[in-house]
Amino acid sequence: MKELSFSDNLIRLRQERKITQKQLASFIGVTKGSVSKWENRQSMPDIFILPRLAAYFDVSIDELLGYEPQLNKEQIKKIYLDLVAEFGTQPFEETMQKSQALVKKYYACYPFLFQMCCLWLNHFMLANSKKRQEEILSSITDLCNHIISNCDDINICNNATIIKAMSCLQLNQAQEVIDTLKELMNPLHLSSQSDTVLIQAYQLTGQTNEADSFTQISMYSHLLSLVRSATQYLTIHCGTLSLCETTVKRIDCIVDAYHLDALHPNIAALFYYQTALVYCMHDKKEEALERLLRYVDCIEAIMKEPFLHGDSYFYAIGSWFEQLDIGGSAPRDTRFMIENAIQSLSHPTLSPIKDTDTFQHIEKSLEACLNYLR
Q: Which domain holds residue 163?
């Protein structure tokens, strides 16, 4: 990120034109002393002079000033990951204020603003009070509204709509979530079939590699969506053991078939954790402990592999991850994720198994992971 560099740019542009300060001053209609002060950072030209200077050198005013209103993908990724690291090591408010200042600086760079919404949503719970957490969530919804109202990229707008809904959900604004998403996520829309249409078009035009890659991306995305939805399904039907066991049995087959513990351990971990809660609710202690052991295995796997990656089956999705604004990196600091996992073991539903040797082993394993990162 560059600060304004008007003086340096003016010197460079003038020297490229091979003109003197006096010649430039004569053209613009100011004194040679004024040009000298601009180049020596002693003053700035009047705002009405900037268009004439820019026109003379055939550059935009932004280029003349050295102002970059847009960030490229690599810059966005670096800023995001730097802030993730700072949230893990620096005082929360200090990092939060830094991110807010960057939002103001790049208020027209919508891909960057969207990533800042994601960043805040992934870290708002670190704020030291419920009131402050709610303030950050409200800031996310406001920033998402700004993106939706002004951005021309429909994909960014749709993603911002989803992040807004997630923020509203954290604020217990359930009806707002329904109103926001019910049309966007309507399964009856033909957009749900667009991936198949695109794949067929790739095949018909002989673009085999593109068809292969996009097919893998589609399967991968739907696979994660299925397991994520099944995890939510368990929360809805947690009181009905038979239905939960059927769901667990079916999803276990999918997890095993696609090696999801290694392919995407975070999604698998959430599923195992929810199944542990269900089993505890129904006094099935051995099953709950077995699920928590799998949960810890997934947490440990997150430390060993990039957050997003393919495998021998999904061999063509690496380039897709590279195209994401933050690549295949984790949206939160690994240490923060493990701290959350440790906190998850304090859930009241797990009380019946907390005194067992296996549970204490699980706690020690997660503590060891955290100590390893310190």
A: 73-181
